[in-house]
Each structure stands twice: as C-alpha cells, then as structure tokens.
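Researcher: We plan to redesign the surface later, but first we want a full-length starting point. Tokens attached.
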C-alpha cells in the first residue's frame, strides 16, 4: 500500500512538473509546492533504498523529517509571515505570475494577415476580476476593450476622446460604469448634453506605453479628436522585464524570460527569502545594481514611446495629453516615484501633461482618510469613489486647457 501511494504521488508530481515546463512558472500553486517536496523526497528515498546502503533506514527517516520541517516552514512563511508575496499573491491570488509574462490580451495572429498584432481581450467576451476584496464583471466589446460597441462613423459635432492606459484605465476595482473614462463622459454629458462627447475606454490591465502605441494604431479608425495616455509608476518595471518596441516582430511576441531559477522562486518561500534577504534580488529577479542600470534605459524607452504615441495621434489630427496617476503608495507616503521623470518631460518637451497628484491630494484631504476611502487596501487600485475624483481632476484640467 505504501508503495502504491508513493507511486501515485510521484506520478502526479511528474504530471504537474510537465505542466510547469510547458506553461512556465505561472501555473505554480502551493499544491505544487507540496507535491514538489513529496515527490523529490520519495524519489530520493527510493534511490537510497535501491542503492542498498546499510544505513538506508536512517537516511530515509532523516529525509522525511527534513521534508516535513521544510513544508512547515513553507506554510508559515506563505500563510503567516507573508513578507515575500508578489502583488497578485497579496491581493488573494494563489498562483505566482512571472513579471516576464506578457498578458494574454495579446493575440499574435489574426486572419487574413499573418503579421497583424491584435490588441485587447477576446472580442465580445467577459470575465470576473476578483480578489479578496471585490468581484466585478468586465465586459468587452467587438474590439476587445471594456466599453460599449462604438460606431466607426462619428455624429456631426461629436468629440471623441480615446483613453489609453493599463488597469487604472480599464478600471480594475470598480464596475463597468464607474471607470474614469465612463465617469469623464458623464461629466461632459452633464455640462454639454449627451452624445456630444464620447470617451472610449481602451485601457488594458497590465499594458504599458509600448502596447498602447499599437492600441492607438488599432483604434484610429474611430477618429479620436483627443488621445489621453494615462501612465503610472509601474511603467519602467514593465519595460525592464519586457523590453521596448523590439518585443514585437512580425506580429509575434519576442518574450523575455526570467533566470533559470525562477520556478524555485515561484514555488518556495524559503528560496525567496534566501534570494531576497541574502543576495538582495528584487521581485523582478534582478539585483539592485542591475535594476539601477536597466531603469535608466527603461525611462529612455518610456520617453520615446510617449513621443511616438503623440506623433501618431497628431499625424491623425488628434491632440494628445499625458496623464500621470499616482499609486496608493505614492499618495500615502508622498514619495512620487516618477516625479523627476515627469518634471523632465515638462521642462524638455511641449507635451500637454495632467499631473493629477495635487488635485487628488486636495480632494482626499477634504473628504477624510483617502487610503480607506478611495483605494482598496490589498488590491491598491482605486475604488469607485477614487475613480470618480480622478475623473473630476482630469475633467477640470481638460476644461482649464480649453480656456
């Protein structure tokens, strides 16, 4: 019976390992961590048993004891201490997600053109965005963006605003009608009447300005009059792990990969503590020196991508505005991570920039504790009230720029 149980455990362990080899670290859960320790220990014990070492019983007992202690340590570190959790694990996810993984919203090919990059989620689909704090349905139109279907033909005197960005634009943490592009349109409706202004929500969670350049290319057929690009402090890290425009060639994703030891980082919190506390690796699986060097290059790539988006918008007779949205950390600590970069853009370019922090700060201090009132605590995105004041700040700035 013991041999049969051991065989079944090793079989399942091998099957899961094949999945990891096929799909990468993103399929690793705590279940696989347990199977990993059990499978490796069982294989080791049988190797010792068949080697006919005289004291194999003592070695087997020692191996089983070590496995048990390590599993206990993994459980305490993962569910008790929690100091080395990734962002998705902190907000209630049970699967590790590699920072090198480009999100599934990129479809590499679409007939009839083999070199067409298709942007957005699956057309006319829906999904639940859930975590420990909320659950909201995201419905996507025929372009794979979180919005209603849009007519290619514009109404007479209609003004169209195309909103580009990541999860803060798609509206993670709120309902479909409470994203900042939808609330911005509502504010225009209240001032100018309905059907005068149309705000198109082309935000896609996890994207960065490289992706958003191609989203703009895709959405130009809707003849936007104004392109709004919303960025935040996650952009440089995304570029460090994904690269610049070279990540896409001939309609295919040339994905970067993490170090060979990333699967161990995904499954073992003991390993994470060693790599991060002893060798000082970051969650991007790089040393601080590597991050410092690559961040300088990432900021240059980010700047170039912003200018390329502006150029493409202007070539198609659309104005362009860059919007900076702060994270919960930045608002709480007043440590604005991209302050120098935004100041550099303001001084060295003619970009129209909406720097939302002073406006958000004023709203949040006037209306109470902003951390609890406007952001989700674990998820760290805005809630519906937070998105509403963000839309207010953007609307006020845009109206001021008209004058």
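Model: Full-length starting sequence:
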């Amino acid at each position: 019976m013991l041999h049969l149980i051991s065989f079944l455990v090793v079989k399942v362990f091998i099957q899961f390992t094949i999945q990891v080899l096929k799909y990468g670290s993103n399929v690793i859960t705590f279940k696989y961590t347990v199977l990993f320790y059990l499978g490796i220990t069982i294989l080791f014990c049988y190797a010792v048993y068949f080697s006919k070492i005289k004291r194999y019983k003592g070695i087997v007992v020692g191996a089983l004891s070590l496995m048990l202690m390590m599993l206990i340590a993994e459980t305490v570190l993962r569910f008790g201490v929690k100091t080395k959790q990734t962002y998705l694990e902190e907000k209630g996810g049970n699967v590790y997600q590699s920072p090198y993984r480009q999100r599934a919203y990129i479809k590499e090919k679409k007939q009839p053109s083999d070199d067409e990059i298709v942007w957005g989620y699956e057309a006319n689909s829906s999904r639940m965005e859930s975590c420990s704090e909320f659950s909201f349905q995201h419905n996507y139109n025929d372009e794979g963006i979180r919005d209603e279907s849009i007519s290619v033909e514009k109404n007479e005197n209609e003004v169209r605003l195309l909103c580009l960005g990541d999860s803060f634009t798609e509206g993670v943490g709120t309902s479909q009608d409470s994203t900042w592009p939808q609330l911005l349109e509502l504010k225009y409706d209240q001032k100018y009447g309905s059907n005068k202004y149309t705000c198109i929500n082309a935000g896609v969670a996890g994207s960065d300005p490289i992706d958003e350049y191609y989203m703009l290319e895709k959405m130009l057929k809707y003849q936007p009059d104004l392109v709004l690009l919303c960025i935040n402090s996650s952009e440089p890290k995304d570029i460090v792990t994904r690269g610049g425009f070279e990540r896409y060639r001939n309609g295919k994703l040339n994905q970067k990969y993490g170090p060979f030891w990333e699967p161990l980082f995904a499954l073992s919190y003991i390993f994470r503590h060693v790599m991060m506390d002893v060798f000082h690796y970051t969650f991007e699986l790089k040393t601080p020196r590597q991050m410092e060097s690559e961040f300088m290059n990432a900021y240059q790539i980010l700047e170039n991508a912003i200018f390329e988006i502006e150029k493409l918008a202007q070539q198609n007779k659309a104005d362009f505005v860059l919007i900076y949205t702060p994270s919960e950390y930045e608002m709480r600590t007043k440590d604005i991570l991209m302050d120098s970069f935004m100041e550099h853009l303001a001084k060295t370019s003619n970009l129209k920039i909406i720097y939302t922090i002073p406006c958000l700060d004023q709203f949040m201090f006037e209306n109470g504790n902003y951390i609890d009132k406007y952001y989700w605590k674990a998820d760290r995105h805005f809630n519906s009230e937070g998105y509403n004041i963000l839309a207010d700040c953007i609307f006020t700035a845009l109206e001021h720029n008209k004058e």
